[in-house]
Each structure stands twice: as C-alpha cells, then as structure tokens.
Amino acid sequence: RAAGAAACQIFDGHARETALAATALAAAAPGGLSEAEKEKLVIQGLTLVTMHEVGHTLGLRHNFKGSAFRSLADINDVAKTTSGGASTSVMDYIPVNIMPKGRTQGDYYAARLGAYDLWAIEYGYKPLAASSPEGELGELEKIAGRSGEPALAYATDEDTEWGDPDPLSNRFDLGDDLVAFARARAELVAQVMPVVVERMATRDADGSGGGYERVRQAFGVLLATHGKAMDTAARLIGGLVTSRSHRGDANARPPFTVVPPAKQREALELLESQLFATKPFTFPPQLYNQLAASRWSHWGTQEVDREDYPVHEVILTWQDRVLGRLLDPLALARIRDNELKIPADEDAFTMAELLERLSRSIMTEVRTTGPGDYTPRKPAIDTLRRGLQRAYVARLAGIATVGGAANADAQALAAEHLRTIDTDISALLAKDDVKLDAYSRAHLSETQARVRAVLDARLTLPRP
After folding, report:
1. Do strands 256-258 and 434-435 pair parallel, antiparallel, or not at all (unpaired)?
2. Residue 167 has pLDDT above 90, yes or no
3. Cβ partners under 8 Å of residue 320, min gap 6
4. Cys-Cys with 111: which of 47, 115, 238, 393 at CB 3.0–4.6 Å?
5. pLDDT given for residue 1 in this prediction
6. How far apart are CA 98 and CA 28, in angstroms?
7. Which of 47-56, 88-97, 295-304 comes out lowest in average pLDDT?
8. What is the pLDDT of residues 50-73, one digit of tens each?
9. 123: which residues sit within 8 A by CB, 6+ positions away?
10. SS3 track for 82-116
11. How far apart are CA 330 and CA 161, in angstroms?
C-alpha cells in the first residue's frame, strides 16, 4: 500500500449493503426472502469481497471510480454484466444492486474482473524482455498511456475523503449518474417503508423471529440508505471530475473538469424534494411505536441510548450532514473558483445561486405562511422543518462570522441572507391574521434573536 493508505473497510460497508438487500427483498416478497434468493445474494456478495481482497494481495489499491462507468440500465442488463461486471474494477466498494419494484433487476453483485483490474495487473506483472528496470520504461509508459480510456479512470482513498472534489470517486455508489442512483434508492426506501413492520415482524418458517427489533434495524437501514444516497448526490454541487492522465496520452482529459451546471442544479433539486422536504420522512405515526430495541445483549449487539427510536435526531443528522457538505468553507471556495474556470458568457453554478436556492427551499414557511389559527398539533412550521431551519441558520451564522474560514464573498452573502430572514420573520410575526402556534412562534422568535446576535457581532469593530 502507498503511505497513508487507509485500511480496507469493504466488509463493514458490505454488511450494511447486504442488510439493505435482505430488508428490501423480504419486503418485496409476500412470503419473505426465499432460500434460493438468500443463497444468490450471499454467494454473489462473498465472491465480490473475495476478489477485492485478493486484488489487495496482488498490490492493487482501491479504485473508487470503477462503479461510475456503466449506467444503471446497463448494470441491470445481465447480458452486459456477465462479461464485464457492473464496475470496471473489483477494487471499488460496490454497493448492492437493488432496484425499486417495476424496474429491471440485474445481479445483486456482478462480481467480474473489469478493464481497470486487467490493465493494472498488466502493468505490474506483464513479463518484459528488457534486461534492466530502465529498459522496461518504454513498454510501461505505453501501458500507462492508455489512462485516458474511460474504463480505466482511477481514484483511490486519498481522492475520496471529505472535501475532495471528484463526485465520481465514492464508496458504495453505483452507476454513471449519481442523481439517478439517489433517486432509485429514495424510491426503493419509499416502497419498503409501508410494509416494513408486516414483513420484518413476521415469524420465519422455523418459528424464529416475530419480535420488533428487526423492524427497528430495518428502519435504521432504510433511513441510512436514503441519507447516504442524498449525501453522495450532494457531491455533484461544486464538483470537479479529476483525471490522472498525462498530456499526450490518448483520449486524455484535463486534470479537472467542472461538473456541468445543469447536473449540479439537478442534484440540488433532488435534495430540495428528498432531503429538505418533510414528505420523504412522513411515516405512519404507529410505526414509531414499533421500533423496539433488542433486549438480548451479547457480543454481537450494541447498546442503544434510547429504547425508543430517536427519529428527530437521526433525520436531522443526515440533513445537517448534507448542509455541512454544501456550506463547508472549502466547498464554497471551490464553487467560487469554478466560476473563473468557465467563460463569462457561459452558464455556471454560483455561490449566490446555491445560497439563494437553499434559503428559498429551507426557509419557505417564513415567507409563505398564510392566515390561520395554528396549533401545536397543526403548526405553521412542522417539527422536522423547524430543526432543519435551525441547522441552516446556524450554518449561515458560521459562514457570516468575520474572520472565519469562509471566503469574503461567502461571508457577505450569508450575512445578506440572515438579514432577509430577520426581515421576513418580523413581517410574519406582525401579521394579525396569522395566529401562530406556540412551537412556531417560539422557534421564530429564537431564530430571530440568534440572527440578530450574529449580525450585531459583525458590526462590532475590534479594538485597535
């Protein structure tokens, strides 16, 4: 391994992916997951993990761009994946392929050596006739010169950390379109949630099961699947597709290519409808009372902080994680820099557009709440949206702080949006025909106080 390379963690992630598959497949089949399908899922998964780890023993590093080569349609075409797999490399962390009901379903794990694997092995192990390492250089450069071929794209651990620019270098993503992948995952979760209790709390054929702990586990897996898919798609915003090709290589791309503005906007639209809105998280109230933790403590279980499920906390964790990704000072700096990489007469996705869209989507109720007599049970601003709005205002406040890590343009824009929020809250609180519920009124008053504290602090000049 190269210095600093992370230890392989495919098994932990693979366990989560297989848990998703077991949950989704059990929900899709009225009689539960058949033994034949269980065996197919396990064998395909073990084959993939084994090939991945053997690759490490041969010296191959992770290639997290492998799964971004084929479209979801091709990945679910067994005729195509039988010969070439779902990925150009088994050295990627490849998620389980489970499609929503009504779509064509391919292999769960299409474990085949890909073009990148064969290329890397050729470079490392091809017998060369030269009598010295220097004599091998020409042939090795010829092999490496193919790096511009799309199927040989490469990115590894140090290209796939928080803040890294390439949205196609991910762990456990699938397909060449992250938005399509995230939509498919969201659709799958939406289909499974309504039947999760019925399917997961049913006794197995051998009489085991029947408790509610599997419902809780499945619910957690589904929420995490939804959240991770949205977080992955969010990487498109401000993203740069990277290339390691050298100048002169055939089909070489430049080191950096800005993600097309239309694709960045498509990702943001997805987040607005699937993460920042309440609808994807609107579940039957009775479901929450069936999310029981296991009472059997042993080496294979983890204690929970609460016996009931922390719904607000988990949902807000994913929402705030994505906000943190979008509004990280490095991400904002990259979006601003990307504006210089595109001619002024061409379209570009800007920091100004990002903050405008986020404020419009997240703070909607502050501007649009109409006349009514609201109550805590039917509030003007519902409970999940209040949490999201607090998180967003806190992020804006962090950006607007003078002397903080965000660039000056980002600070100015954030302060401007805070001033607008202050004005909009004042207007809403002053409406005589809007009888706010206690929750919404307290939320708005507290939010306004925090906004004003941040704005006042910006006007306080430091002593000389």
Report:
1. unpaired
2. yes
3. 391, 395
4. 47
5. 40
6. 11
7. 295-304
8. 999 999 999 999 999 999 999 999
9. 140, 143, 144
10. HHHCCCCCCCCCCCCCCCCCCCCCCCCCCCCCCHH
11. 13
Q: Using one digit for the tens of pLDDT, what is the confidence trace for 6-35?
A: 678 888 889 999 999 999 998 887 777 788
HEC string of the chain? CCCCCCCCCHHHHHHHHHHHHHHHHHHHCCCCCCHHHHHHHHHHHHHHHHHHHHHHHCCCCCCCCHHHCCCHHHHCCHHHHHHHCCCCCCCCCCCCCCCCCCCCCCCCCCCCCCHHHHHHHHHHHCCCCCCCHHHHHHHHHHHHHHHHCHHHCCCCHHHCCCCCCCCCCCCCCCCCCHHHHHHHHHHHHHHHHHHHHHHHCCECCCCCECCCHHHHHHHHHHHHHHHHHHHHHHCCCCCEEECCCCCCCCCCCCCEEECCHHHHHHHHHHHHHHCCCCHHHCCCHHHHCCCCCCCCCCCCCCCCCCCCCCHHHHHHHHHHHHHHHHCCHHHHHHHHHHHHCCCCCCCCCCHHHHHHHHHHHHCHHHHHCCCEECCCCCCCCCHHHHHHHHHHHHHHHHHHCCCCCCCHHHHHHHHHHHHHHHHHHHHHHCCCCEECCHHHHHHHHHHHHHHHHHHHHHHCCCCC
- Going from N- to C-terminal start, the domains of the chain cover 344-464
The token pair that represents 456 in the structure block:
């006042």
pTM: 0.93
